[in-house]
Design a protein that fits this description.
Blueprint (H helix, E strand, L loop, with lengths): L23 H19 L2 E2 L2 E2 H20 L5 H27 L4 E2 L1 H14 L4 H13 L14 H5 L9 H8 L4 H4 L2 H8 L1 H21 L3 H24 L20 H6 L6 H6 L15 H11 L3 E2 L6 H11 L6 H7 L1
Antiparallel strand pairs: 1-2, 3-4
The chain binds zinc ion (2 copies).
The site of one zinc ion has 8 residues, from helix 3 and helix 5.
């Protein structure tokens, strides 16, 4: 999966123009906001390097290392709260901008979309519109210059380095041709993009910091470094591992001709997003995995939402299609040959 990074913290977000009829006003408003961001960022660019992002990411990671020293001084409830914030953050990416908005692998009613958009602002990885558009480019042009985090440029580039340089022109040009009318038609996506900075300030920094202070008397210093800085830095790196490690290390049971792999460590950290060979082979599948709920808290969450009638229309690759694909293009792992013999 995953495009990441945030308007102000992340990539030099050249927003791509698209031409949906009936959405010209929204498009123009978005373009002018993005132009303003780009003009500001230009002052920080030198030789293609986006120094603003280099400096902010360096400071963030130094802050995260310092946060480790804060852990023993904080109250146990603050540890629990930080973990809860991590899970909400992760769901905002996995169940939200990835499986819902990027891939449309299930449908969500308004209250769930509002929750996922708020959780997505807590993740501060770029607004839903830009993340989903970049992610569609990643799937369509994987491992080419049009892939925002092209893993053939090495682990560092795929992980974080892509945020430190200007986007390759192919990313922008190919992105222009994608259909994103569905994103423009969703008022929740529009609202989150319009008020992105405000919602990030509230969800990524204020709420995680203030709740422990207000409800159980934690110091603002401790809660800021644990629930905000450390939680944010870990969630960013877990997301980036899907772009880096899960595109380089692991087996390829569904299609050995593509780079994305099944990586159990990434699956564990990214609450179910490490079945990446499956996901790139069957991107419409809401579970991003052949194994349903197993090692997949995000799938559990979506199923729970369906049970609560807040979600519906989960798309799933059939067992027959999966087995046939394993036999045709897989690397032989996950017992594809046995399945054929049984039949
Ligand atoms: Zn994806
Ligand atoms: Zn990928």
């Amino acid at each position: 999966m995953v495009s990441v990074p945030g308007a102000s913290v992340h990539q030099d977000g050249e927003t791509v123009a698209w031409e949906p009829r009936g959405h010209e006003q929204e498009r123009n408003a978005m373009e002018s906001r993005s132009r303003a961001t780009d003009e500001k960022a230009d002052g920080w660019r030198s030789n293609g390097i986006v120094w603003r992002n280099v400096i902010l990411m360096a400071l963030l990671h130094i802050g995260a290392v310092y946060s480790l020293l804060v852990i023993p001084r904080a109250k146990p409830l603050t540890w629990v709260w930080s973990y809860v914030c991590f899970i909400v953050t992760a769901l905002g990416v996995t169940a939200g901008v990835h499986r819902l908005w990027s891939h449309r692998s299930y449908r969500a009613k308004l209250p769930l979309r509002v929750f996922l958009a708020a959780a997505n602002s807590m993740a501060f990885q770029n607004d839903i519109y830009e993340w989903a558009r970049d992610h569609r480019v990643h799937h369509k042009f994987s491992e080419t210059d049009a892939d925002p985090h092209n893993a053939t440029r090495g682990f560092f580039f795929a992980h974080i380095g892509w945020l430190f340089v200007r986007k390759h022109r192919d990313v922008i040009e190919k992105g222009k041709k994608l259909d994103v009318t569905d994103l423009l038609a969703d008022p929740v996506v529009q609202f989150q993009r319009k008020y992105y900075k405000t919602t990030v300030l509230i969800m990524c920094f204020l709420v995680p910091t203030v709740v422990p202070w207000y409800f159980w008397g934690e110091t603002l210093w401790n809660s800021y470094f644990l629930a905000s800085i450390l939680r944010y830095t870990i969630s960013l790196n877990v997301t980036w591992l899907v772009n880096s490690a899960a595109h380089m290390y692991g087996n390829r049971p569904y299609d050995q001709n593509i780079s994305p792999r099944e990586n159990r460590w990434v699956t564990f950290g990214a609450i179910g997003e490490g079945f990446h060979n499956f996901h790139h082979t069957f991107p419409f599948d809401y579970s991003t995995s052949e194994f349903g709920l197993r090692f997949n808290p995000t799938t559990c969450f979506i199923d729970l939402m369906c049970w609560m009638s807040l979600a519906s229309n989960r798309k799933k690759a059939s067992v027959e299609i999966i087995q046939a694909r394993k036999l045709r293009t897989g690397d032989g792992s996950y017992g594809a040959v046995n399945t054929r013999q049984e039949k």
